[in-house]
Write a structure and sequence with these properties.
heterotrimer; A mainly alpha (about 250); B mainly alpha (about 120); C alpha+beta (about 325); A: about 250 residues; globular; B: about 120 residues; mainly alpha
Chain lengths: ~250, ~120, ~325
């Protein structure tokens, strides 16, 4: 039942609506390749930029150039073809590539001035930069943690964006707005209750509960779908899902 | 044994002994029998009342307070009775009477009738 | 695209992990806590219109065994109907396959959080209630095996509930033999050599993984640990209580109290001012205890005697 909404058991745990962008990025089919790369860039450019800024102390401009350069190179030069799912997660592979790329670029830069080669990708660096200043990174987060944190942030932000779009298209504007109000815009407002939401939105409390349950369910489905996209195989997907959401390792066979 | 019965018995027994202490007061010795009977009767009435109170109210402090009060009150009635010599022994009767009431009040509170299983 | 603070990201992770109760009669209200085996959520039972606690298996744990353990815990609890043991209402599987069970929502505090704010006699009474619940389980052939203050809830009306029966051992289940590496069998029972429990509360035989010899006395040991915990805030714990702790936590099982009931009776003796069996007291100590026990009576009698004596003396003078 309701497999399309992702609560029908297996479909929820292993959303197969989209193929792996990681595999697509390695494809020989150009269109497929482009689609895969676009998804990877969309998910990873911000974590990459912030990682360079925060952990390598790169300046705003350098980090911007390096990020641009990294993804441009990845698209041009089959960077991601070298990824072998058997040897670890794609996220770790990408981070290692990024570190290596940054190191090489710096070596090269000491010999000659790097030329950014024009804006290749339409990435909103100003926005990413402003986000950096909104919350300090706690000192106990290691380089890998910082990258992971930014990855999760990016993944969730993209998922919320998609949730918003899908809700709009399906006429589920209100569930999204409730989700936004209750889960995203609380600002530590511990007293925000379903009752108060019901008053604010002029709907019965039962509807608040149902709408919120719906939105959470959809959010969860989208996150898992996105995870599915950016992992190479089932095993990696499960591991990521488990570490991110504590799900995916199975449960009872349907 | 129920609490009122215990109160009655204890009140009576303590009343007897309380009355007998008059023996040590030479001028009262001649009236000893009357004093013992009066004191016993007072003890019985107070004990019964305290026993019923304990049945209703389960609290050691309140039991003691009630015993004290009823002992004091009954002893006052006894002490206020017209005396042959015209002299009233308020202190001598009321103070011990009150304490005896308190003792009965305490005893009826801690008394459980039969030993309850503790587990 | 919106920016998400760390707190929001953390919150969303929890939200996305929340079980999907869509096809059940429960409605999710929030999260109550996390344990090794699963997460406990606050939910509303829409059919009965009451709040319940839903324990949902953490799929992060190895899946089939975890699910089996969860159901086993629910069944054990269902068989233990006692005011001191949290009642189970329902069990089943969620649409996403995760196993859950519904239990009474206990409004209260965990014993470890509550203990310091409660006077000693009250703490001992709570402890006695724990012993009673454990004794009841033992009588039903169930050993808890993970008794600790964190696993005891004290309700706002003073009710005491022993929780987390996830690693309980049912004595009628023969302990499966086999390599420890095999872990728990399909029955959910623990294989010989597997260590379950919490360090500090675990009996030595339990810590060694001697499953077959982990009986009621292992729980008695853990109860001794709880009692020691309850005494921790006392500047000087009464010697009789320290002796009870010592006996309950004896290294050899046969040196401990044989049953939780015996331990409870011992606590009762202490509370009643009677002599505690585990402790041989000196004359002074004994006199002190007897005086403490009959303090009111002794004081009243002394008062009477003093008054009588004073009246005699002053009567003579006047």
């Amino acid at each position: 039942m309701r497999d399309d909404t992702g609560i029908g058991g297996r479909a929820d745990r292993f959303p197969a609506t989209r193929d792996s962008a990681v595999l697509a990025a390695q494809s020989s089919d150009l269109l497929e390749r482009e689609r895969g790369l676009a998804i990877l860039v969309e998910t990873y450019w911000k974590p990459a930029y912030k990682y360079l800024r925060l952990r390598f102390g790169e300046s705003n401009e350098d980090a911007k150039d390096l990020t641009q350069g990294f993804f441009a190179r990845a698209i041009e030069k089959d960077f991601f073809d070298g990824y072998d799912p058997a040897r670890g997660s794609f996220r770790t592979y990408l981070r290692t590539c990024l570190e290596r790329f940054a190191a090489n670029e710096k070596k090269a830069a000491s010999r000659q001035k790097r030329s950014p080669g024009g804006a290749l990708l339409a990435l909103d660096f100003a926005n990413a930069e402003s986000e950096l200043h909104r919350e300090p990174v706690s000192a106990d987060r290691g380089p890998e943690d910082v990258f992971h944190d930014e990855f999760v942030r990016s993944l969730f932000a993209l998922s919320i964006e998609r949730l918003r779009e899908e809700c709009l298209v399906r006429g589920k504007d209100l569930p999204y707005r409730l989700f936004e109000r209750y889960e995203l815009d609380r600002d530590g407002d511990e007293k925000l209750s379903y009752e108060r939401l019901a008053e604010e939105f002029h709907i019965p409390v039962t509807q608040v509960t149902n709408f919120l349950a719906f939105a959470r369910r959809e959010f969860r489905r989208i996150v898992l779908e996105k995870l599915r996209e950016i992992t190479a195989n089932d095993r990696e997907f499960r591991e990521e899902a488990r570490s991110l959401l504590g799900v995916g390792a199975g449960g009872v066979a349907p | 044994m129920t609490k009122p019965v215990l109160g009655l018995l204890l009140g009576g027994i303590l009343g007897v002994f309380d009355g007998l202490t008059a023996y040590f007061t030479p001028e009262a010795r001649s009236m000893l029998l009357g004093i013992v009977i009066g004191s016993t009767f007072k003890g019985l009435v107070a004990g019964l009342a305290i026993g019923f109170f304990s049945k209703k109210v389960h609290s050691v402090p309140w039991g003691i307070v009630f015993g004290l009060a009823i002992g004091l009150f009954l002893a006052f009635l006894v002490a206020a009775m017209p005396q042959p010599g015209g002299k009233h022994y308020y202190f001598e009767i009321m103070l011990p009477g009150a304490i005896v009431g308190a003792i009965v009040g305490y005893a009826t509170q801690v008394w459980r009738g039969k030993k309850l299983s503790t587990a | 695209m919106r920016w998400l603070s760390n707190a929001t990201v953390a919150h969303l992770r929890r939200v996305a992990e929340w079980p999907d109760l869509g096809a059940t009669k429960y409605r999710l209200l929030g999260e109550l806590g996390r344990g090794g085996m699963g997460t406990v959520y606050l939910a509303e039972d829409t059919a009965l219109e009451r709040r319940v606690a839903l324990k949902v298996v953490a799929t992060a744990a190895s899946a089939p065994e975890a699910a089996e353990r969860m159901l086993r815990e629910a069944r054990i609890l269902a068989g233990l109907e006692h005011p001191g043991i949290v009642p189970v209402h329902d069990a089943g599987a969620l649409p996403d396959g995760r196993v859950f069970y519904a239990m009474k929502r206990v409004d209260g505090q965990r014993l470890d959080a509550l203990a310091a704010s409660v006077p000693l006699p009250e703490r001992l009474r709570i402890f006695r209630r724990i012993c009673e619940a454990v004794a009841f389980a033992h009588a039903r052939g169930v050993i808890h095996r993970d008794l600790k203050p964190e696993n005891v809830m004290v309700g706002s009306f003073g009710e005491v509930l022993v929780m987390d029966w996830g690693v309980a051992r049912v004595l009628s289940d023969p302990a499966p033999t086999g390599s420890p590496a095999a872990g728990s069998g399909a029955s959910g029972a623990t294989a010989e050599g597997t260590v379950v429990g919490t360090a500090g509360y675990m009996a030595p035989e339990q810590a060694e993984g001697a499953v077959a010899s982990t009986g009621p006395r292992a729980d008695v040991f853990a109860l001794g640990g709880i009692l020691a915990f309850l005494l921790r805030s006392e500047p000087a714990a009464p010697r009789a209580l320290a002796a009870i702790v010592e006996k309950a936590r004896a290294r050899q099982p046969e040196d401990r109290y044989a049953t939780a009931e015996e331990l409870s009776a011992e606590i009762n003796r202490y509370l009643e001012g009677e002599r505690v069996l585990a402790h041989s007291e000196g004359v002074l100590e004994r006199a002190g205890r007897v005086f403490a026990r009959y303090r009111a009576a002794i004081l009243l009698i002394v008062a009477y005697l003093v008054v009588r004596t004073l009246l005699l003396i002053f009567g003579r003078h006047s």
